[in-house]
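Below is a filled-in request sheet from our internal design queue. Each sheet records the structural input a requester submitted and the sequence that came back. We keep these sheets so that new team members can see what a complete request looks like end to end.

REQUESTER: design group, bay 2
PRIORITY: normal
MODE: inverse folding
CHAIN LENGTH: 190
BACKBONE (tokenized):
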């Protein structure tokens, strides 16, 4: 978990003891390219730390996959709706590369957060960050053209073109692959 401290520092400063106590809750997972960390229909009880690798979050509707986001390590992910509502998750998380991952029981993280204000602050700031990014995506689908959504995605994640298959990129901005080809061609002509 060499990236864990660097990642969490963006949200809150933890003492060495707090960092150790938090890290101790995580256990390693082996995730190979194209394996799933989560599958729709399962009940989620864990929070995930993606130390190395690239992932996509998607859901299925009428047999078609809709990519909702990409996760680039290092990052933390929790399927809060499933955890809080005690319902099966709607989402799938698939590794797009071989990955170095860890998971921790969400309730244990919460218990530690109750005892440690800095850890509570860390997760509040992290959830705030996730919420803001979700709202930004939602607004983009309301206000932005397909081309602007593509250009924003590339500007925020330049490595995406090298790491993610184009059909997943197309799905994430709400277009078919042939439409993405036209958008990319027009962007290169400018």
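RETURNED SEQUENCE:
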């Amino acid at each position: 978990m060499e990236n864990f401290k660097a990642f969490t520092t963006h949200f809150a400063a933890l003492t060495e003891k707090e960092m150790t106590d938090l890290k101790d809750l995580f256990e390693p997972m082996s995730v190979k390219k194209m394996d799933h960390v989560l599958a729709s229909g399962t009940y989620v009880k864990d929070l995930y730390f993606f130390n190395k690798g690239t992932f996509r979050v998607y859901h299925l509707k009428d047999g078609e996959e809709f990519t909702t986001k990409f996760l680039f390590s290092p990052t933390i992910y929790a399927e809060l709706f499933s955890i809080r509502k005690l319902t099966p998750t709607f989402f799938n998380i698939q590794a797009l590369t071989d990955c170095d991952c860890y998971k921790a029981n969400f309730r244990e993280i919460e218990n530690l957060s109750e005892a440690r204000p800095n850890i509570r602050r860390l997760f509040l700031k992290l959830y705030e960050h996730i919420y803001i990014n979700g709202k930004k995506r939602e607004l983009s689908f309301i206000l932005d053209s397909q081309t602007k959504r593509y250009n924003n995605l590339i500007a925020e994640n330049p490595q995406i073109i090298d790491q993610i298959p184009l059909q997943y990129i197309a799905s994430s901005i709400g277009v078919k692959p042939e439409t993405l080809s036209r958008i990319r061609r027009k962007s290169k002509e400018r």
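SHEET NOTES:
- The mean pLDDT is 93.
- Residues 50 and 101 are 5 Å apart (CA to CA).
FILED BY: M.R.
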